[in-house]
Design a protein that fits this description.
Helix content is 32%, strand content 19%. The chain is α+β, with helices and mostly antiparallel strands.
Length: 254
């Protein structure tokens, strides 16, 4: 066996045969990441065994991810700074007869949402996924607001998971990175309550009032630039002078 044996060395599904099947399936899917399960497996017997594994109630994605997360943390220890990128993606199962799905961007679409935290180095070297949050949206009842869980919680919980491993990664500076949707007060307050065990980098959505008075964006624009970035837009993306600029801000332990 190749890389998968080392990657899932700590996996524990309660049965050594399940552990071995998880390693083999990871190896096969890693060799052909764009293939279906029958296309990735090397025989019909192996394909049938893979489907039995995935239908086994004893097998949960959390246990599989935990083993990979441990291996990811080991790689993180080798770096002084890592970027913990969190964002949301849609798992589109529209047209599939699957129980437990909810609406996606459009109410008629069916699927689930996945919010992973993917760790890379500042040089863009991938280190792995350390946690994930998945859910299916509740359906709307007429014109009433959508029920179900508060989806913004995923940003806060992802930061909490990053913070939990800060003690084990004392020599590694973690920077939690999120887009404009993560610019929520609950995240900023939670980071403060925990004592900022990890930095955060958030793309601004709100022009917040500063404790000493004034607005955030005005303060940033009045400060001296730290540097300049030059980039070119393909023809047709934006007319001259019409580009929109986003402000980014960081809370650092230093």
């Amino acid at each position: 066996m190749g890389w998968a044996s080392a990657e899932f060395e700590t996996i524990d599904l309660g049965d050594q045969r399940l552990n071995q099947r998880a390693v083999l399936l990871a190896e096969r899917l890693g060799q052909k990441p764009g293939a279906s399960i029958p296309g990735a497996c090397e025989s019909w017997a192996e394909t049938a065994a893979a489907y039995r594994f995935l239908h086994n109630a004893q097998v949960g994605w959390e246990e599989v991810l935990t083993a990979h997360a441990r291996a990811s943390q080991a790689r993180m220890r080798e770096h002084a700074v890592v970027l913990c990128l969190q964002d949301t993606t849609e798992l589109d199962y529209n047209g599939r007869a699957i129980q437990g799905l909810g609406p996606l961007s459009y109410e008629a679409q069916r699927g689930m949402y996945l919010h992973p935290t993917y760790v890379v180095t500042p040089q863009r070297e991938p280190l792995g996924v350390i946690n994930a949050w998945s859910w299916a949206r509740a359906f709307k009842a007429g014109g009433a607001p959508r029920g179900g869980l508060l989806e913004s919680v995923r940003w806060v919980e992802s930061y909490e998971r990053i913070a939990e491993q800060a003690g084990e990664l004392a020599k590694t500076r973690q920077v939690c990175v999120g887009d404009r949707e993560s610019d929520i007060l609950a995240l900023l307050v939670r980071a403060h309550e925990l004592g900022y065990p990890a930095d955060y980098l958030v793309r601004c959505q709100h022009n917040r009032v500063l404790p000493e008075g004034g607005k955030l964006w005005d303060r940033v624009m009045a400060s001296a630039p730290l540097g300049h970035v030059r980039f070119e837009l393909p023809a047709g993306c934006a007319a001259p002078g019409s580009a929109r600029w986003g402000l980014r801000w960081i809370r650092s332990r230093s």
